[in-house]
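Appendix B. Chain record.
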Amino acid sequence: MKTTLTRSLLILTLAASMAGCAGMSQKQKNAAVGAAIGGVAGSVLTNGGTLGTVGGAAIGGAIGHGVK
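Structure tokens predicted for this chain:
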């Protein structure tokens, strides 16, 4: 149940963030995509663990922001 809820919230967050990307700079878009990918990866690697999901999103967002 926890894994399903985490994934559902992650998908909802991804959809909402992509809808609001029209006025974003390229760095902001890269950070959003990186956070989404990192969150999914963190969730998968920790079997839906909250800390893994949030940590993956934070790391992915930081990496995405740094990409040119």
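Further analysis of this model is presented in Appendix C.
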